[in-house]
Amino acid sequence: MLGTFVFLVITVLCTIIWNLVISLRRPHNYPPGPKWIPWVGNTHQIQQLAKELGGSHLAYEHLSREYKSPVIGLKLGHDYVVVALGYEMVREIHTREEFQARPDNFFIRLRTMGTRLGITCTDGPLWSEHRSFTTRHLRQAGYARQPMELQVQTELMDLIDYIKSLKSKPTWPASFLAPSVINVLWTLATGKRIPRDDKRLSNLLTMLEKRSKAFDVAGGLLSQLPWLRFIIPEKSGYNLIQNFNMELHKMFMEIINEHKLNYCEENSADDLVYAYIKESKSREGRPDNTFTDVQLTMTILDIFIAGSQTTSNTLNIALMMMLVRPDIQDKIINEIDTHFPRPNVPKYQEKSLLPYVEAYLMEVQRFFSIAPTTGPRRALKTTTLGSYTVPENATILIGLRSVHMDAKHWGDPEVFRPERFLSEEGNIISNEYFMPFGQGKRRCLGDYLARTCLYTFFVGIMQNFRLKLPDNESVPSTNLLPGLTMSPKPYKVSFVPR
Questions:
Q1: pLDDT band for position 463 (cuts 50, 70, 90)
Q2: Domain limits of the chain?
Q3: What is the residue-averaged pLDDT of the chain?
Q4: Superfamily for domain range 41-497
Q5: Which residues are annotated as a binding site for heme?
Q6: CB of 130 within 8 A of CB of 122?
Q7: How big is the CA angle at 313 (ends 219 and 320), to the nearest 5 degrees?
Q8: CA nearest 255: which of 287, 309, 289, 303?
Q9: Is 316 within 8 Å of 487 (Cβ atoms)?
Q10: Which amino acids does the record list as binding heme (predicted)?
Q11: Which residues make Cβ contacts (< 8 Å) with residue 422, sequence separation at least 6?
Q12: Of 39, 85, 163, 260, whose CB neighbour count within 10 A is largest?
């Protein structure tokens, strides 16, 4: 009996020691980076660096300089994580087939209600089929065509009316920008707007903002140490995401069930939900039918998340910089009044009339890079990046900000200067280092919508208002708050009719 007990103790100890050795092992020719500790990896180091420097993207750039390498090798929790920085490495990740997959981890599945569905966090045949289907049917419903342009203009009118109702009262723009952006894509996807005063919308946007602050692109502590949800479910963000998922699921299923009740062949091209229902009906009884209610819910979730923050945050920053740089505001107002005065309604297709405005919006996206680290990707097989080996299934993070702030290319990247995108003749200059929406097959699905909304809403606001700093208010900080996407610190502005 004693011998059996001793044998069991020795076995457990050997297992622990072996797991300890495996946990500390650095793969052969793995990219340079800091040493990690057992089971936790570099999680604490990155968290500490991010806190000191102002975001995990700055932590990665710091390590890149420290180890003199554009590729950094980390271990976050149990996952090998490779960070690619600089144009050459970023372009490789964007364009090479072996880097087109998504990780399959706790945070990714938690984001999509325990599944691995939708179009953002999937890969393989499911991703190819549903991204293609979604793109095709959004276009049929008007995406990137005149119906979308008209919907953007409708939302602009609603936005201007709302701003006028403020009567120049100092306000925080983030409180009303997101619904305008969401409703364009939401109408194409579901066939109806979400009223600005809908309490469900304001509640979801509040939770979405909290979610953005609680996590980074790697999923934060909850992804790397998922057992924390049992110990600190509130502080880890687990309860936040669970509540967010429940609210979204309830809202989405109401829309899907309403579409099912009203479905007929004639309206199947009206919006994305009807198109999914039609496709699902055509595949009934087939074991390979992936057009399910759950997949549709996850696709709408991806659309909602994609359309709710990045564009509205960029527009918010563009308005903020009117207070930081009143000299630029004067140039913008002068160009609009000269070449596109009221009562003309802004159209993205006519953006060539306002090259300085376009250059300004490009500089906002370059300078602030609100998605400074994009991805994540997954290596489909063991491969190389630069001169280093990337293990199969390693997570890949893309340092997009490092491209936008590359001094070798931009010369003075720390200077906010819209003129860098203009030729001597005043025309827009294309630049391969400018990639706010990524590149390749994984390029942002909603990039055209984002560019259209950003341009149309900004020009429409500047046509009608001059932005002024309220009395006793400080000039807004250009240091953004970190998270899944970067966002400006709260500030107040007065929209003065002109």
A1: very high
A2: 41-497
A3: 89
A4: Cytochrome P450 (1.10.630.10)
A5: 444
A6: yes
A7: 135
A8: 303
A9: yes
A10: 444
A11: 355, 356, 359, 428, 429
A12: 85
